[in-house]
Specification:
alpha+beta, Neutral Protease, domain 2, 8 helices, 22 strands, binds zinc ion, hydrolase, Aminopeptidase N, metalloprotease, zinc, metal-binding
Length: about 475
């Protein structure tokens, strides 16, 4: 879904469904003299870090994911139907899919030819697709998804990870396509229906709100719906034994918190902190962008991270308050306003890390001013930390500490330069300007300059794009 016209499109889809069926037939003939001939869509959207992720030639609007999982064997049987719109005349197009076996592909309900090459699934529909035409592609597939990464990239494995009682699913940046065929890039956001089928006694948890759930014939079924545009990496289908607590935050947002009952909860009140942070961030960053907030607290020791899964972050263990407020800040920075490409990752991690300092300031523990100086002082000028240009951190270091902490420092330096008034106007203005869409660093700089009335490129140049330690502000 290209940027912000999404909501309208989804409803228009229903109205157009019938028209599409007949348009498909019309498009079957050879291209007319005036129309450019149909050609295959590009295999990727050209992300500088992941050139093959996403696909050219169409815009994904809605995913319907059906996932049937057997925790004993690890077998996933899936069916994905994507409603999409062709952005050029297409003779064929790609989806991203890593491993797994494809059983059949249909386009507009008709059997389509397909081939596999690396992580690309190339679909050749029986009839060409016309630019602007809406179509559906349905893929039936099966296999045992494999987690990605390992110790070399991003510090720990990630993706579809088998737990003691089910599966933990956290896919940033590129593991969504290990469990469903997709346009696996944040630049192509879409809405979702997710149906999980698991053995009886287990709970399947996903994004958005629970539409229905029931048990039948030894299986447990749940149907989730995310009505706001979502990046593929933020989709989950986490399955296991969970205690579920639901309610409404004091500010009025529905909340769903699932906790693995075998975990020692210690003294962390995940439900309470989630409710409080959702409400507090709504005041600082603007209206909460999604229909529900929450948490999925699972037991996945091999995953050393948590993820800001849209509407309910996943935690691989019971995490502390500062992690929870970080993941919830991502609902604005990363989930509602998503990166245009992965180079801009500091727009997610720098902001969510800065939110941790804001939380301490809010709680009266420590000001962001002091947090910044303490962090700065702790890292000597010759430390490799300062070598990372957080505005373009490179693929394998995109989740390095510098992206988080120097990113947060950049925001504090900005705040000290433009003053609290402009700074706290800028944050909600940013989330409003790109709500449900995508954005990049140059747009943030432009908005900061507009709101403050100051010229700021020197500040951002120094903090985001140099490989040395910047001087502290005010010196
Ligand atoms: N966005 C996550 C966070 O900051 C980190 C994800 C790291 N990804 C990974 N594959 N380890 O909370
Ligand atoms: Zn983060």
């Amino acid at each position: 879904m290209a940027l912000s016209r999404s909501a309208r499109r989804t409803s228009r889809w229903l109205a157009l469904a019938t028209a599409v069926a007949s348009a498909a037939t019309l498009a079957a003939g050879p291209a007319t003299a005036s129309a450019p001939p149909a050609s295959p869509g590009a295999p990727g959207v050209g992300d500088p870090y992941f050139p093959e992720l996403g696909n050219g030639g169409f815009d994904a609007l809605h995913y319907d994911l059906g996932v049937s999982y057997d925790p004993d064997s690890g077998l996933l049987e899936g069916r994905t139907t994507i409603k999409a719109k062709a952005t050029k005349n297409l003779s064929a197009f790609d989806l991203d899919l890593q491993k797994l076996r494809v059983e059949s592909v249909k386009v507009n309900g008709e059997k389509a030819a397909f081939t596999r090459s690396g992580d690309e699934l190339t679909v050749t529909p029986a009839a060409h697709l016309r630019k602007g035409q809406r179509f559906s592609v349905s893929v039936a597939y099966a296999g045992i998804p494999e987690a990605l990464g390992g110790p070399i990239i991003f510090g720990s494995p990630y993706g579809w990870m088998k737990t003691k009682d089910g599966v933990f699913v956290a896919c940033e940046p590129n593991a969504a396509s290990t469990w469903f065929p997709s346009s696996d890039h944040p630049g192509d956001k879409a809405t979702y229906d997710i149906r999980i089928d698991a053995p009886k006694g287990l709970t399947g948890i996903s994004n958005g709100r629970l539409v229905s759930s029931h048990e039948k014939g030894g299986r447990s079924y749940s149907h989730w719906r995310e009505t706001k545009p979502m990046a593929t990496y933020l989709a989950t289908a986490t399955i296991g034994k969970f205690d579920v607590r639901t309610g409404t935050t004091p500010g009025g947002t529905p909340i769903y918190v699932a906790t693995d009952p075998t975990l020692p909860t210690g003294n962390v009140d995940v439900y309470g902190i989630t409710a409080e942070a959702t409400d507090y961030w709504s005041k600082v960053f603007g209206k909460y962008p999604f229909e529900e907030t929450g948490a999925i607290v699972d037991d996945m020791p091999q995953a050393g991270f948590s993820l800001e899964v849209q509407s309910k972050p996943v935690y691989s263990a019971v995490r502390d308050e500062t992690t929870i407020v970080h993941e919830l800040a991502h609902q604005w920075f990363g989930d509602s306003v998503s990166v245009k490409n992965w180079q801009n990752i500091w727009l997610n991690e720098g902001f969510a890390s800065y939110a941790q300092w804001l939380w301490d300031e809010h709680k009266g523990t420590r000001s962001a001013h002091d947090a910044f100086r303490k962090q700065y002082a702790a890292i000597p000028a010759d430390d490799a930390f300062w070598k990372i240009k957080v505005g373009d951190p490179q693929r394998d270091t995109m989740f390095s500490r510098a992206v988080y902490k120097r990113g947060a420092m950049t925001l504090q330096a900005l705040r000290e330069r433009i003053g609290d008034k402009a700074f706290f106007k800028l944050l909600p203005a940013w989330t409003a300007a790109h709500r449900y869409g995508n954005a990049e660093t140059s747009q943030f700089i432009a908005l900061a300059e507009k709101i403050s009335g100051q010229q700021l490129d020197d500040l951002f140049q120094t903090w985001l794009y140099t490989d040395t330690r910047p001087a502290l502000p005010g010196k």
